[in-house]
Amino acid sequence: ETGVTQTPRHLVMGMTNKKSLKCEQHLGHNAMYWYKQSAKKPLELMFVYSLEERVENNSVPSRFSPECPNSSHLFLHLHTLQPEDSALYLCASSQGASGGQYFGPGTRLTVT
Amino acid sequence: QKEVEQNSGPLSVPEGAIASLNCTYSDRGSQSFFWYRQYSGKSPELIMSIYSNGDKEDGRFTAQLNKASQYVSLLIRDSQPSDSATYLCAVNGGGFKTIFGAGTRLFVKA
Fold this sequence. Notes:
The complex is a heterodimer of chains A (112) and B (110). Chain A has 112 residues and is mainly beta. Chain A has no helices and eleven strands. In chain A, strand 4 (31-37) and strand 5 form a beta hairpin. The N and C termini of chain A lie far apart (31 Å). The mean pLDDT of chain A is 93. Helix content of chain B is 0%, strand content 55%. In chain B, the strands form two sheets. In chain B, strands 2, 4, 5, 9, 10 and 11 form a six-stranded mixed β-sheet that branches. Chain B has a five-stranded antiparallel β-sheet with strand order 1-3-8-7-6, with no helix packed on it. Classes of the chains: A mainly beta (112), B mainly beta (110).
């Protein structure tokens, strides 16, 4: 176990649904990340929070909305997604910007 | 655009051999470098980090960094079938934005 948990592990949703992904880190880190991983493509950074402040927002469509209520929890709220949003969504945490990142198991999202 | 390049492979080596994985990056100001291992269907796992030129060893793994040539490599000694995975190179140029390569698939033949 890496100390980063994600729920749910699998999610199937229609394009009109609203759902949320949850991430929790038990490592005492001060930064948390959301990544998208699609087949045959590099990891795409979506959002970064440091000390609960958003510090990176990588031109992500507004149908993805992050929330970081404290340094241990991170959410990704989803609404009106498109089929091309189907991917593995990974949460990670690190200590500072230069520390290595520890990933959760991911949420496999399918948009129908 | 800042890039991290890796040969997609697959790289096939016999059990017990040394596997050599390479990565080049475009941002000359990069400061932190990482290698992750990702098994099929799993999430990436941090295996090495390196911050200064030279070699860093951890068990069977050695990371090598050459900032002048803008490359970083990972050597795996005494390769085992359990090392078969995709290896991701990641580079941080400052701030919280880490750029990942697309990964090299390694296959270790028993």
